[in-house]
Amino acid sequence: MTSTTSGPLLRIAGLSSGYGRVGVLEGISIDVDPHEIVVILGPNGAGKTTLLNSVSGVARPTAGSIAFEGRDITGMRPEQVVRLGITHCPEGRQIFQRLTVEENLVAAHIGRGGKSFEALRAEVFELFPVLKERRNGMASRMSGGQQQMLAIGRALMA
Ligand SMILES: Nc1ncnc2c1ncn2[C@@H]1O[C@H](COP(=O)(O)OP(=O)(O)O)[C@@H](O)[C@H]1O
Ligand SMILES: [Mg+2]
């Protein structure tokens, strides 16, 4: 990811968010710098997924802001957020079970700019060779771990 500003890659400031009228997060602030990996720890129901859902546009912020590369993305829809280069690799895989491995990767690449499908697929296959071996097999026929590889591969394609 090339950063166009000198500030943090991702800046979450005073974020409150939830689902409809159900408030979950209140006043969360986190900065993520370029090349930094940030881990969020907490018990079940603490709001970790809701935080990520707020960044990817699935949950709706009610206060505060989220900025990516200096650009305000607060309240953007998921399909807009993903085109800026933010991908949410969901818990529980959520791959398309009735599509092949390759078809899952094709679906993930739809609408993206930048790198070609072939170039990205080569990167994913290098990272997870088993996906190349199983490319024409149904996603549902793979093991849990292999399906997780596909979920990560799909996120990288997007
Ligand atoms: N789709 C939803 N609609 C309403 N409430 C939700 C939804 N998803 C999660 N919640 C609630 O939000 C709170 C935080 O959940 P979540 O962010 O999934 O926690 P974590 O990922 O840390 O386990 C919980 O009280 C949960 O019941
Ligand atoms: Mg969660």
Blueprint of the fold:
Blueprint: E1 10-19, E2 22-32, H1 48-56, E3 60-68, E4 71-72, H2 78-83, H3 101-109, H4 117-127, H5 129-133, H6 144-157
Antiparallel strand pairs: 1-2, 1-3, 3-4
Helix pairs in contact: 3-6, 4-6
Adenosine-5'-diphosphate binds at residues 19, 22, 24, 42, 44-50.
How is this structure best described in words?
The protein has 158 residues and is an alpha+beta fold. It folds into two domains: 10-76, 3-Layer(aba) Sandwich (Rossmann fold); 101-157. It has helices spanning 48-56, 78-83, 101-109, 117-127, 129-133, 144-157, and strands at residues 10-19, 22-32, 60-68, 71-72. The chain has a four-stranded antiparallel sheet with strand order 2-1-3-4, with helices on one face. α3 runs parallel beside α6 (144-157) and α4 runs antiparallel to α6 (144-157). The longest helix is centred in the C-terminal third of the chain and has 14 residues, at 144-157. It is globular and about 45 Å long. The mean pLDDT is 93. Adenosine-5'-diphosphate is lined by residues 19, 22, 24, 42, 44-50.
- Overall tally of structural domains: 2
- Give every kind of bound small molecule, once each: adenosine-5'-diphosphate, magnesium ion
- On the 0 to 100 scale, the average pLDDT is 93
Helix content: 25-40%
Q: Order of strands across the biggest sheet? A: 2-1-3-4
Query: What fold name stands as the CATH topology of the largest domain?
Result: Rossmann fold
What's the CATH H-level homologous superfamily of the largest domain?
P-loop containing nucleotide triphosphate hydrolases
Tell me, what is the CATH class of the largest domain? Alpha Beta
Helix-strand topology string: EEHEEHHHHH
Please give the radius of gyration in angstroms. Answer: 17 Å
Shape: globular
The beta-strand count equals 4
| Measured distance between first and last alpha carbons | 13 Å
What is the number of helices? 6
Parts with pLDDT < 50 across at least 5 consecutive residues: none
Strand content: 15-25%
**Oligomeric form of this entry?**
single chain
Largest beta-sheet characterization: 4 strands, antiparallel
Q: Find the structural class using helix and strand composition.
A: alpha+beta
Which CATH architecture of the largest domain is right?
3-Layer(aba) Sandwich
